[in-house]
Structures are given as structure tokens and as C-alpha cells.
Amino acid sequence: MWVQAEVFLQTLVAGILLGGLYALIGIGMTLILGVMKIINLTHGQLMMVAMYIAFWLFTLFGIDPYVSLLIAPPLMFAFGMLIQKALVNPVLRVESILPHNQVILTVGIGLVLQNVATILFTSDYRSTPVDYASTAFYLSDLWAGTPVEISLSLPWAVSFLLSVVITVLLWFFLAHTDTGKSIRATAQDKDAALIMGVNVGLMRVITFGLGSALVACAGCLFIPIYYLFPALGSQFTLIAFVITILGGLGSTLGAILGGLILGVFESMTATYVGMGWAPVGRFVIFVAALVFLPGGVASLLKTRKLSK
């Protein structure tokens, strides 16, 4: 009995740790979707670029991947703003010609980034062999009297805590700064924001940069844990898209809950069905959300508020 409970709790904790990082990826895509009304299908490739930045900072200069959070996200913020201003904006101006041309553009940008990375760095798998990569501790070390022994990987735990801190800082920025409030106003009603004097064009540029910086943060948190290769971005673009659908289009809180749900679901699938079935579980929950919860978790939250 205790063994089964221990396996379940270990799987649950692993899923929550994974879900916290997934949530950070999903928030970036959701933020861009909410403000610009487009699905950024180059999201994972931007994360891949950030991971290569963190990798080379570690390889060439010995900078810890977590310290690279101070370097890679600002660079990707500037890169995201450049992409939005130079490529996405001109396409948005001719949206009437082809309503979904901006989505096609993001796919093309992702393919270019992936192929450039392949040319420059080859398709070899790379990693950052940090000293603490295999370090783990037990929950009983922190909470005496715990009846089951649940181990926590130090990199996973640190990455999760940092993702929480980044999410809280994002909430503070959106809720308590003039720029953050302008971004939220643009997301809620672009025309009303224009009437109130908000520079909607600038907010779109900043939002794309902010979404790129958020996924860059996720890349820096993943690099001590995951192997890195150019095609990695496609996998995380799909994950971000699933989280966005599961959480609800444009809902930041929904993206957080969607990331946690997906992380736990994948962890449970890997433990009780098999490691190879985790991606299948991802598609199962995606299809289930489309069929039974088309509005995502956000629709349940809205329904609950209206019922009170």
C-alpha cells in the first residue's frame, strides 16, 4: 500500500515540477495570442535559440545555465521585438489578403531558425554537464516525519522555483506597471485602448518581445535537464500550443493551469502506461480539451465566477 502511494506521490510531484516549466512556455504563447490575436508557431524555435545561447555561455565562459537567465532572455526580448517589427507587422498590414498569413509566417520563421541552427551547430545532441545535474534530496529532509520517501531532483526543483518567481514577476509587471496595464488593455479591446491613448503598435512589439523572453527563460531552465538539438523547438511549439488550447485562448491563468495539468498527465502516463506513451497522452488530452472543453480551463473559471 505504502509503495503504491509512494509511486503515485513521486509521479505527482514530478508532474507538478514539469508542469511549472510547461506553464512558463505556455504563458509566452498565450500572451502573444491575447494581444496580437495570432498563434506564434515559432515559439519553440525561439526557446531552442535561447538554449543554444545558454549552452555556449556555459561551454565557452563557464556561465551557469541559471545565471544565463540574466543574459539570454534580454537578448531574446530584443530578437523578438525585431521579428515582430520587421516581419510580423508588415504581414499584419495586409491581413485582408490572406487572413491567416501571419501564422504561415511564424511557421516559416521557425523553419529558418531550425535550419540555421542545424547548419551552424549540426544535429548533434548537446548538454550542459553541470556539477549538480544528478543531485537529489528527499522530502523527508525538509519535512521530518514524512511517511513516504519522495526524492526531488535539484535541477528540477530549482527550475520549478525559478519559474514560479518569473511568473510572479510577470503578474506584477502586468498588474502594477503602466506598460503592463496597456498590454492588458490592448488584449481586452484594441479599439478602446486606442481611444484611451495607448500606443497599440508599440504594445504589440513589446508583447512579442516579452513572449520571446519568457520562452527564453524556460529554455535556460530546461538546459540543465534536457538534451539540446536543433529540432527540439518543434516539440516545444506543440507543447505550447496544447497548453494554450487546454488553458483557454488568451488566458494567462488558464495557461498556468494548463501547463500543470499537462505536466501531471504526461508524468502519470509515463509511469503507469510507459515512457513512450507520454507524447500520446499529450495528444489525448489535447483532443479531449477540444471535444469536451473547447473554451479551455479559462471557460470553467469564468462559469464559476458568473455562478457566484
TrEMBL record:
It is found in: Cell membrane. Keywords: Amino-acid transport, Cell membrane, Membrane, Transmembrane, Transmembrane helix, Transport. It is a multi-pass membrane protein. Its main location: membrane. One of its GO terms (cellular component) is plasma membrane. One of its GO terms (molecular function) is transmembrane transporter activity. The chain crosses the membrane at residues 12-34, 46-63, 103-122, 154-174, 205-229, 235-262, 283-301. Pfam families: BPD_transp_2. One of its GO terms (biological process) is amino acid transport. Belongs to the binding-protein-dependent transport system permease family. LivHM subfamily. This is Inner-membrane translocator. It comes from Nitratidesulfovibrio vulgaris (strain DSM 19637 / Miyazaki F) (Desulfovibrio vulgaris).
